[in-house]
Amino acid sequence: MTLRVAPVPPEHWRTSRQWHPAKSDTTFLERALVLWAPLALVVAMAAGCGEPTAGYDVPRGASYEMMRRTAVVEVFEACKDSVVNIGCSRRDEKDPNTTHTEYASGVVVHPAGFVLTNGHVLRHGGDVAVGFEGGKDYPARPVALDETGDLALLKIEAGSRLKPIRFGRSRGLLVGERVVTMGNPLGMGMTVAEGIVSAIGRSTQSEYTFYPDMIQTDATTNPGSSGGPLLNVSGEMVGLNTTKNLQADNIAFAIPADRIRESLPRLLDVEGRYGFVLGMDVADEGPARVAKVIAGSPAEAGGVRVGDVVTRLGPENVASALDFCLALVECRGGEALPMQVLRDERFVSLTVTPTKVEPRAAETVAGLRPGLSRSFYEGEWEALPDFSALKAAQTDRAETFGLGPYAGRDDFGLRLTGYIEVPADGIYAFYTTSDDGSRLHVGDRLVVDNDGLHPPREVRGFVSLKKGTHRITVTFFERRGGDTLEVRWGGPGLPKAPIPASVLSSPPS
Q1: Which residues are catalytic?
Q2: 316 and 288 in contact (C-beta within 8 Å)?
Q3: Residue 431 in 3-state DSSP?
Q4: Mean pLDDT within 466-476
Q5: Where along the chain do its domains lie?
C-alpha cells in the first residue's frame, strides 16, 4: 500500500480554528502534528514509503522504483533485444538521386539471425536493412515469402548470437486480456503501447490480401508497426501486428501466433527449396518430436525413429519445429548432417546424409505450337475430380493459364495442358492462386496442391528442372461465388511473375 502524506503549506497553518500558544482550545497533539508533518513526510519518503510531493526534494528508495515497474515495463525490458526496426529503400525510377524508404518492424525468431516480419513489407523490393534499438543496422536478405499469409523471413549476419522472441499460444487468448505492442511506427524507432484483446476470430481485408481468423486489439498501431510483436503480459508473442482499420480508431489486427507456428515450416519448405530429401517430419507444437519417418529415406538410414526428440541438428540447438526447419536452411544434398536426439531419456548421436534431388530431365517433343490445350467440364464438386475420367463439355486452346471466357460461371472445371520451356538448370518455384481449388503438375510430379473450397489463396511448390521442355498441367474447379485462377513461376535469374505465353506450347488440337 502506498502512503501519501500531504504537507501543510505555511499559508494554511491558520484555519478557522487558528493555533496560538496562549489558546487553551488546542491540544498538544494537534500542535505537534502541525509542526512535525512536513518533517515526517521527508522521513517517510526517504524510507521509500511514498511518492514525492511538489515542493520537496525527496530521495527515491528501492520500493518506490518497484512501484513504477509495471507489467508493461517488464515486457519491454524482456523483449527489446528481440524486436527490430526494418527499412526498405529503393531509388526512384524517374529520379535516381531520390530514395524512397518504407519502415516496418520485425522479431528475431532464431539466434542465427532469422527475422520474421510481414510479407507486404517487401512488396516494392529494394534494399532491406534490419536494426536494433541503440545498435547498428545490418543488411538483410529475404529467405522466404508468403504473400497470401503475409509472412516473410529475413536473414542477417550480426556476427553474434541473437535473442529470439518467446512464442506464446494464441489459442487460449481471452477477450479483454491486456496486451503490449512493440514496433517502429513511421520509422521513429522502438515504440511501446498497450491495450486489450478486443475480439478473436475476426476476418479483414487489406490492399495486400484477405486475413482470416485474426486477433483484434485496441493497442495503438501505425504505418511501420507491421511485423512487430503482439505480446501478452508474460512477454510471449501471441500475434504479429499486421494491419488496421483505416476508417476507425483503435481497431488493429494481428496474425495469431499458432497460425504462424504452423505456417513457417510450409513457408520455408526447405527440402523443396534447396533440392534435397531428408524424409522425416517433426511435430508442429512443443519439442521437435519426430512424427514421421519415410521408409527408405535418409532419415531411416541414419537411424531416426518416430518418437525421437531432435535436440541438435548440425551446429544448431533445436527446441521446436521452427528451429528444426531453420537449421536445414541452405542444407545441401550429399553432405553429412550430425544430429542429436533424445530417446528413452538418453541422448543419442546420429548422422543423416540428405539425398540430393536430381533435376527432372527435359523432353524432346516435335510439332509443338504456341498455346495450351484447354478442356472445360460441367459439374458440382467440393474437391478436384479426376478430369481424365470425365468427358469434356468443350475443348479449345488458351494462350496462357487463366479462366479466359469461362470467368464468372459457377459449377465448372478446367484442365490446361502443354509444355513449358525452362531457360536454365535449377530449382523453380511454381505458384497457383485460385478460388476454389487448383493443382499444378510438372510431368507426373505434383508440385502445387491448392485443392478444396476456399477464397482466393496462393500456394507454392518447388521442383528441380533441367534446361529444356517439360510437360505442365494445371487443373481447376469453381463451385459458386468469386472465381480466380493465376499461375506464376520463378527460378534462376527469373523473378516471380506470371508465366508468359512465350514459353508455353502444346501439340496441335
Answers
A1: 120, 150, 226
A2: no
A3: strand
A4: 98
A5: 10-68, 70-268, 274-356, 369-506
